[in-house]
Design a protein that fits this description.
disordered C terminus, 18 strands, 23% strand, 10-stranded mixed β-sheet, 11 helices, 4-stranded mixed β-sheet, alpha+beta
């Protein structure tokens, strides 16, 4: 199992140890090797109250959950007591060295603090911006390194140190919030090269205490179609709650890729594009882009992975389904309507056929209904051609009102106007017949208005 996070912590510690080594020859000794624990001589002051380091490190011993999280934290070192303990062990340290530091983790990158002496054996804990550590930040401390120096012995400076470093927070003070565990897994082949486009972002289902870990077994990860886990049965990685940006490699082998379904979709798309002019331009462009991606994968052959091929087919099918036909050409219909509008129905013996043809006009049909649209125009022209003008001695037949373009105010369109009160009851039947015809023509005007709006 991989413990990359722990490795990174020790790498940072080693790097910082090396960075702070003076030009002269120095020898470093862990005081724990001489039976001395620096925990007994270090304490921290939070909101004016002092807490022993050993107590802060013991789970359940100190609860600071009710303390202001913005309170500054300082460090105290009982250097006299520590020196005495080392002298009892045969060593002669002198003082806390400036290279001592504390670091914390809230992501995959550490924040390092150094110690500034501000009083007798009291140190401010400050970052590179000279900002002092707060209780909120103290809750995530993962490394404490206390350096002590002895005098030059003619050949080297003997440096003694005490250190604690963990992947989890060192201090159990009930302040750090619970976090999700996040990581990214990259699928690699036997040559340890990353499989193109194949990675998996992991987020734990449950939250855990910041800095603690959860084991993720590689065999339980969802594998992209076409890849099979090829590592050991118990292979996995410990993922740390609250840390981000951590990456792990998972060994896989690639299965043979099946292109048959994609090839069928490519043929269908190519056939549709043979008549690209009947579809709206935006949809055609999206289909062309999806087709190009599919064709590139086909050219890759077995270098392509099944999940890539499946995704390309889905995108191609979606682009085909999204195609929209362009609208039918209503030029002939517009011409027919204009010709009908120019006529005065009262000049003809029977204008009803023209009205019926106009009533049957349907707008917004797409290009696949072009023949139907053209037939509407032909029907209007035919009805007009069949009109017969009135003769001087012809019997007078009530005619619809002349067809006129609709006006802006259409609130009463289609309403029947009441008959005038003339007292002549013998012509009521004739007047009623006339008004019924007029109402029919109002319907024609309504269709015309719809046509004009669509024609704009």
């Amino acid at each position: 199992m991989k413990l990359k996070k722990l490795g990174k912590v020790f790498f940072v510690c080693g790097l910082l140890l090396g960075m702070h080594t003076p030009a002269v020859m120095a020898k470093n000794y862990n005081i724990a090797d001489y039976g001395v624990s620096y925990h007994d001589y270090v304490s921290f002051v939070v909101a004016g109250k002092e807490y022993e380091m050993r107590d802060l490190m013991e789970a359940g011993k100190v609860d600071l959950s009710g303390v202001d999280r913005s309170a500054e934290v300082t460090m105290q070192v009982d250097i006299d007591g520590l020196n005495q303990a080392l002298e009892d062990a045969g060593k002669k340290p002198q003082a806390v060295h400036q290279d001592s530091y504390i670091s914390r983790y809230e992501s995959s990158k550490p924040t390092v603090y150094h110690l500034d002496l501000i009083g007798d054996d009291t140190y401010a804990i400050v970052d590179e911006d000279n900002e002092q550590m707060t209780l909120e930040e103290f809750a995530y401390v993962s490394t404490v390194l206390l350096y002590l120096d002895t005098a030059w012995d003619g050949t080297s400076v003997n440096r003694y140190y005490g250190i604690d470093t963990k992947t989890a927070g060192i201090f159990h003070i009930n302040v750090a919030e619970k976090k999700y565990a996040n990581a990214r897994f990259h699928f690699v082949d036997a040559q340890n090269s990353k499989v193109e486009y194949a990675s998996y972002a992991y987020t734990s289902k449950e939250m855990g205490e910041h800095g603690t870990t959860t084991l993720v077994k590689y065999k339980d990860l969802p594998m992209p179609e076409g890849l099979v886990y090829a590592g050991p049965e118990d292979g996995g990685a410990y993922i740390t709650y609250g840390y981000k940006g951590v990456e792990h490699d998972v060994l896989v082998i690639k299965e043979e890729t099946d292109f048959s379904a994609l090839q069928e979709s490519v043929k269908e798309a190519e056939a549709l594009l043979q008549n690209a002019q009947i579809y709206e331009e935006d949809g055609v462009k999206k289909l062309q882009a999806a087709l190009l991606t599919a064709q590139i994968l086909l050219e890759k052959g077995q270098a392509a992975i099944q999940f890539e091929v499946n995704d390309a087919k889905d995108a191609l099918d979606l682009a085909m389904d999204a195609l929209v036909y362009v609208k039918a050409d209503y030029t002939k219909v517009n011409a027919a309507l204009e010709k009908a509008m120019a006529l005065d129905p009262s000049d003809y013996q029977d204008f009803s056929a023209v009205k019926e043809a106009i009533d049957k006009v349907i707008f917004d049909l797409d290009i696949t209904k072009q023949k139907q649209v053209d037939a509407m125009a032909e029907a209007i022209f035919h009805a007009i051609d069949q009109l017969k003008e009135k003769e001087d001695d012809a019997q007078i037949v009530p005619q619809p009102s002349p067809i006129t373009p609709p006006q802006q105010n259409t609130s009463n369109q289609g309403a029947i106007t009441p008959a005038p009160n003339t007292g002549d009851t013998t012509s009521a039947g004739m007047y009623l017949a006339f008004m019924m015809v007029s109402a029919g023509m109002a319907g024609a005007l309504y269709v015309k208005r719809a046509w004009e709006k669509k024609a704009k």
